[in-house]
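Suppose you are handed only these lines of text.
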Amino acid sequence: NEGALWGGRFASGPSPELQALSRSTHFDWRLAPYDLAGSHAHARALGRAGYLTEADEAEIHRGLDVLGARFADGSLRPDPGDEDVHGALERLLLDEVGPEVGGRLRAGRSRNDQIATLLRLFLRDHARVVAGLCLDLVDVLAGQAAAHPDAVMPGRTHLQHAQPVLLAHHLLAHAWPLLRDVDRLLDWDARVAGDSPYGSGALAGQTLGLDPVAVAADLGFTGSSANSIDGTAARDFAAELAFVLAQVGVDVSRLAEEVILWSTAEFGFARLHDSWSTGSSIMPQKKNPDIAELARGKAGRLVGNLTGLLTSLKALPLAYNRDLQEDKEPLFDSVDTLEVLLPAFAGMVATLTFDTERMAALAPQGFSLATDVAEWLVREGVPFRVAHELAGACVRRCEELGIGLEDLTDGQLAEISPHLTPAVHDVLTVPGSVAARTGRGGTAPVRVTEQLDEARARAEAL
Ligand code: ARG
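From them, the structure of the protein bound to arginine can be written out as follows.
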């Protein structure tokens, strides 16, 4: 078992079947730069504590730099005999600087505190990338909102026409969840930053008087684990991030579903740009919303990664168990998925064109101005119970006549109730309806303009 990190107490090497099961280099190799950064920091800690001469420490940093450069140019590769990234890099460092010097680096650390640290480092970097991509999508939504300041559309509940809203208002309703997701990512990062496990050893801490706080600072953390068992065994940080990533996927999937609907012939609200849609191999006329469909599908995959991870963690006794090796693939998959999905999705949204005339024509359908009639009556002093009844009576009358609320004549209105004076016509238009919703957060153009500024300021501040 040459080159392995263990073996002293074993009379024979691992079976090929065990090796095949145990090996993780095919997925954890991407942690190599983080492992090397950890080793640099650890070498400095060993040097400060007197376990490495200046010359030996310099030689280790040199060796690690060589490995880093070879990783960057793609020439550094694990061997089939390497169990994981940590073992592979130790073997490669020994090749570079010799066993005498290289063999000193492992003192006072374990793969258990290493992996718990490296995973945090990797995820912190990628959480930042995902946050940036979410903000790019927010920017695109804000841009589309700004480009359509007065376009109206049917607002829906239960997918049925409910009340007219501004298209900009609806688009911004997809931006706010993403802003909260970015907030969650930052919040998560601040929590993870305080908890560097390096120095926790296998589970019980180390005896060499190394300074974990200095190592933590070296690696960009603000603090080190207060409990070495927790430091090596906890993966709530991983599950928490998997949740936020799944939530991003779910938030995007809700807009995806609408884009899919909007681009059908039946809705006809939006058209996809040729560069951001796909054709059919058999049906020449087809233009498909594949990006939106992949977004919808990948949301399921992100949720699966979260539930898989939580299931692996459930009831796992302290401290480190090899089960924990299963944490990496779902997390890597979640960040990879969003890093490829979000730019495509943002491009699709940025290039959507809206048929604002059709949306405006459909906005008053389904008697979507009935609430406006009721609220107009309330402003005229009629109790809401009565107002609701009267507006309902208007709808019934319109259904009988096969017309819209806006088509009722003064006479027909007065027949329903003397309260329904001709002035009610002011709110029986879609622009009148939206303009009247001036409460904070409402769909009135003045409020939506403010909201757009607020969303942009929020994104700026994140
Ligand atoms: N490769 C392991 C992981 O990903 C870290 C090594 C710890 N292995 C061990 N046998 N203690 O979790």
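What can we learn from it? The mean pLDDT is 96. The chain has three domains: 16-107, 112-361, 370-428.
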